[in-house]
Amino acid sequence: MTGSQIRRLERSAVASGVSIATLMENAGSSLAKQALDFASAEGRFAVLCGRGNNGGDGLVAARKLAEVGRKVRLEVIGGKEKLAPDARRFSLRFGAVRGHRAAGQREPLWRR
User: Fold this and answer.
1) Cβ atoms of 110 and 46 closer than 8 Å
2) pTM score, two decimals?
């Protein structure tokens, strides 16, 4: 699918009542499942996200991986303080899972 086709589908889903947050949660959960299927039992993960809503998908994936006890290094290109509002919510959830305070952190994000 092209980017424009995906955006059209997302707009249609939102118009029918599905929230952007739900779309991010579903996409990130699927990504984490796929990553776990391909990784070794001890595999560590690096998740590199942009600041937009697609970055929110990566933030969800990072959280899901951390929730099952995997080591995750998360980086947000350009800094998490510039995340889109929906994506920012997922960064805060990831920080809560990891036991870190997400706001105001200066060192690389959420290392384990």
Assistant:
1) no
2) 0.76
